[in-house]
Each structure stands twice: as structure tokens, then as C-alpha cells.
Amino acid sequence: MNFVKRAGFSLWARKGRTLITLATFLVISVMVLAGVLINDATAQAEQDAKRSVGAEVNLEMDMGAMGGAGGGGLQAPRIDAATVDKLGALPQVQKYTYSMWDRAILKGKFKLVEGGPADPMGPGGTPSIGVLDSSLLPDFRSGKFKLLSGEHLTAADKDKKQLLIEERLARKNGLKIGDRITLTGNDEKTTADFTVGGVYRDPRPSTEPEPEHLVNPANMLYGTVGGLSALGSEGKGPLQVDKATFLLQDADVQGAFKDEAKRIAGSALDGFKLDANDKAIQQMTGPLKSIRSTATVAMWLMAIAGAAVLTLLVNLAVKQRRKEYGVLLAMGEKKSKLIAQQALEIVVVAAIAIGVSSLFAPSLTQSAGQSLLGNEASAAKQKLDSWQPPGPGSTGLSEGIDMDDQPVENADPIDKITVALDPADVVAVGAIGLGIGLLATAIPGGAVLRLSPRTILTKGK
């Protein structure tokens, strides 16, 4: 009888041992498959999060370079808009915008909203932020600011004279879409009429100073870069901007974009830094990484423990079958075939266990993984909600508050995953399971090689 038939008869004849081995392999298979499925599900959820958020790279002033080349001492650096346009045309970029700011003064009958610091920029003076695309401003993208009427400023409006104004400023001056408002530039020499292109809502109260410019947030003006730069005090030279934001096609191309940007812009980037802002992605995917780490550790611990248990079971089986092996060896059977028989029995049991586990492991993993993720996401959300900003006029340093820890709005931790069984997952688990089975037969296999049929049959050892 060949060893394949003997393996089949042995599994059937020793039903108790076969069931114990099957149960052991089943537990191993379920745990390993669960680990693989959670890894796949969390990886897919992370990729979806990256696609939904996009990768953001900010071109902004490098405080560490202030005073060095290109920094101009205490003079904030600026970069030509034409250079930024070249960077925005790179294939890694999905959308981009840039901005610059200066003081503008409301003229004629137009008045600022009362509240907050009194005339921090002189009577009628307020910051005017020139933007290429207002929809890409962080506060609009996060949903903190809401456009109530009109349209966002876009690159098509670049050289027009259009403004977005806050609803309280619009209400105070009786302004609506299409109305015109007169502004004077910082040098108080150049005056121009701007059209109200949109009215937005800033939820901050009038008494809370805007953190960057320390003015009443209701008085902030956003306008086209071309229109507001014409009011500037820098003459009629090339348009220059203070900062830029690039939304990339994918987070994975950040490195390639930075390399290309440095190559194209060269020394024009002196005084600036390219800062990858992946904070939103990290905030969203934190719970995913936590449960993936837990699942991976549990998977390998179970695999190692399972290999040890199977080794003991196979070793015990070899000892119990010494007389059987002695008779077979005395009949001329090769030791290699005895080892092959033992390995085949393990492989058959492993294959059955893997097949059975693939039927119900996905549903169990979905339930368990969702429960774990829900707990992690809830804890992360509570931590984010508990963060409090420093008081008005404070940097937070004296209170031990790090502004870098401020949560990103509309980037709640992911609390759902979808587990799906892929043929590649079964193949991976099969490879691990068969590897464990073969490893479990390797040590007892050495004992088989040392068997002597004469000693076994005469002394029973």
C-alpha cells in the first residue's frame, strides 16, 4: 500500500487525534485569516481616506531661514506668482492656490463692523487677502467658513476686481452680490471699486480677534490677487505672493513633487519651506493603525503558539505509532515515505481547516474588527473633542498648549471598515498554514530517521 492511502486510512482510523489536530489548525487558520483580512481592510480604508482628503503641500515662510539668504532680515519673503504657476502645472498637482495680503482701507460710506481691537490697522483699515482660488482656503475646505451667496473666486477671476465679504460686513453696509465697494491701498494713493462676488459666514464672534492679523473677523476681505495687488504699495512689478497650497493627486507623490518643485524653482524658494500637511490623514487613520497593529501581533502569536502545539501533537503521534513504523520499516518501507505520510496527513487536515475557516472567518472578522475599531475611534474622538485652544491673545505656551495639536476639522477618525475575502488572502493563509504544518513535522521527522526496526520490534523502543 502506498503512503497516500495509508495517510487516508490513518486519518480515518484515528478520528480523535484527527479532530484535535483539525481544531488546532482551525483556530490557527481563523486567527491568521482574521489578521490578514484586517490588514487588507484597514489598508483599503487608509487608501480611501488619502484619496478623499488628498495630499496637501504648503509653500510658506521658513521661520528658521529668516535673516538668511532670501529672507531679507525681518522682511517676509515673497515669490513670483509665475513660479508658483509652474509648480501648479506639475503632473502631481490636482489643484493649487496662492495668496498675498496687504492693508486695504474702506472709503466713502462704507464702514467696518464694530467689535474686537479698535482700529489695529488705522481708521477704516483691514487686511485684504488676495487669493487665486478661495474654495481651496483651509477654512472653506474644512467647512468652517460657509459661502452663503455668490461664487468662489477662481483663477478665471484673477485679474478682475472682485471680493468675498463676511455677512456681518455686508449687513452693516447693505451690500449684496453685484454691489460695488471702494477700497484704497496701503499707500493711500491708489483707489479702486470692487464688485461683491460672494458673501460668506465666519462663525467666530466679532469680539474674538482673527489670530493672524488680530482684527475683527467680520472685517476680513478676500479678493482676487490681481485686483488687490493693483492696490499694493510695491509698484507695478510682477505679481508676488506670500504662500501657496498644492493639493496633490495622491499622498504617495509628495516626495516626487517636492523634488520637482525644488528643481524648477531653485533659489526662488530661499526663505520658504515646502511643508507636507498630512495631519488630517493621520487624524483619520490613527484608529486603523492601532487595530492593525493589534491584529498583526495576535496573528503571529497565534501562529507561533499553534506551531508549538502542532509539533507536540505530531511528536506524540510518532511515539504512539513506533510499532507501526517498525513493521513498515521491516517490510522495506523507506523512512522518507514515512515522513511524507506524516506530512501529508498534516497537509490534508490543514487544507480542510483553511477551507472551513474561509467560510465564516470574514463575518467573524467584520464583527470583531468593527467592534475594536469603534472603541478606538470613540477614544480618539473624545481626545480630539477635549482639546481647547488658548485664550484670546495667548500663544498657549504659558498654558502648556501646543497649537500643533489642534484637531483638523471635518477629519473625524475612521470608525468603519469593510472586510472582504480575496483569493489572494486564502493563498496567503494557505502558505502560512502549510508552512506551520511542515514545520511541525520537521522535528518529529528527525525522530523517524533515527528509528531502527529491529530495536522497535524486539524491545518496543
What can you tell me about this protein's structure?
With 461 residues, the chain is an alpha+beta fold. The protein has 2 domains: 3-51 and 283-385 and 405-459, no CATH class; 78-269, no CATH class. Helix content is 48%, strand content 16%. It has helices at residues 3-13, 15-53, 81-88, 138-142, 167-173, 225-229, 254-265, 279-320, 322-330, 335-385, 423-449, 453-459, and strands at 55-61, 79-80, 93-106, 125-131, 146-150, 162-166, 180-184, 191-201, 221-224, 240-241, 243-248, 272-277. A 6-stranded mixed beta barrel has the order 3-4-9-6-8-7. Helix 8 (279-320) packs parallel to helix 11 (423-449) and helix 10 (335-385) crosses helix 11 (423-449). It starts with a helix and ends with a helix.
Summarize the structure.
The protein is an alpha+beta fold and 461 residues long. The protein is 48% helix and 16% strand.
Give keywords.
2 domains, alpha+beta, two-stranded antiparallel ribbon, six-stranded mixed beta barrel, 12 helices, 461 residues, 12 strands, 48% helix
Shape: elongated
User: DSSP strand (E) fraction?
Assistant: 15-25%
In the predicted model, the low-confidence regions spanning at least 5 consecutive residues are 67-73
Work out the radius of gyration: 35 Å
Order of helical and strand elements: HHEEHEEHEEHEEEHEEHEHHHHH
Which sheet architecture does the biggest sheet show? 6 strands, mixed, barrel
The mean pLDDT is: 80
